[in-house]
Design brief:
single chain, globular
């Protein structure tokens, strides 16, 4: 059962019982957006795995006459990619997206847009990617996770609200957080990435922030209940007029008044 929104929080907050319930809610929102022909901004990471599993199940359960037109309208841009990893590298975000949605749903390669991690000039690639997104009309719905240090995309702190799509250095905290995909070794995580900036994220017409697990409770409190600041890049999301936040009870533990 969905708990009522907590008072005094920006945007619209849904607190679900657990990660599976969160995934079901978010998958429904994504399917609705696809039905509208929305341009999706997509995210990767462990939080998103149950979300994409639920989305796959919903779409594959549709009759072909309903499923095929929906998939034909799929258009998405991912938030980020590691610099130095080719699309066929098993730890790349391109590989993650193919595994999670591309292959199971038989999506054409061009449906899933990501930065090119092995572009000769990563800074130029970031500019190209931003221009491609702008040419596509901008994001209708941006799906977001929350980094343990408050990053969204790979916008590491400190970061203001107008940072553009760019190539940047990843923090030691982020490399530790992402080490599981690299055999548990933070040093094996690429030190740089290309990411959509806070500027592109905040320009999306709708934002959907998804947070699960007690480990994220304190940074979620900083994100939603404290004044926006560069030290918590996700806190700039408070300024968005159409922010929706979907969390489980564990992640919401620090949000209760008093």
């Amino acid at each position: 059962m969905t708990a009522p929104p907590l008072p005094l929080l920006p945007g619209h907050l849904l607190v679900e019982a657990d990660a599976a319930s969160v995934a079901a809610v978010v998958a429904e929102r994504l399917e609705q957006a696809l039905r509208r022909g929305a341009l999706l901004g997509l995210a990767t990471g462990r939080t998103m795995e149950p979300v994409y599993a639920a989305l796959r199940s919903r779409i594959l359960a549709l009759a072909p006459a309903e499923r095929e037109p929906l998939l034909a309208r799929w258009r998405s841009f991912n938030l980020d990619e590691y610099v130095g990893l080719a699309a066929d590298h098993p730890a790349s975000f391109a590989a993650f997206m193919r595994q999670q949605v591309g292959d199971p749903l038989s999506l054409a390669a061009q449906c899933l847009q990501l930065p090119d991690g092995v572009a000769a000039d990563p800074d130029q690639e970031a500019r190209r990617y931003a221009a491609a997104l702008e040419a596509a009309g901008g994001l209708d719905l941006q799906l977001l996770g929350l980094g343990g240090n408050g990053h969204v995309g790979f916008n590491e702190p400190p970061c203001g609200p107008e940072a553009p799509c760019r190539c940047l250095e990843l923090s030691a905290a982020t490399r530790r957080q992402n080490a599981a995909a690299f055999g548990g070794d933070p040093e094996a995580v690429p030190p740089r990435a290309i990411t959509l900036g806070t500027a592109e994220i905040l320009a999306a017409r709708e934002l959907l922030l998804v947070v699960t697990g007690e480990a994220k409770a304190e940074i979620l409190r900083h994100t939603l209940l404290e004044p926006p600041c560069p030290e918590v890049p996700a806190s700039w999301l408070q300024r968005h007029p159409r922010l929706q936040v979907v969390v489980d009870r564990a992640a919401a533990a620090a949000l209760s008044p008093g």
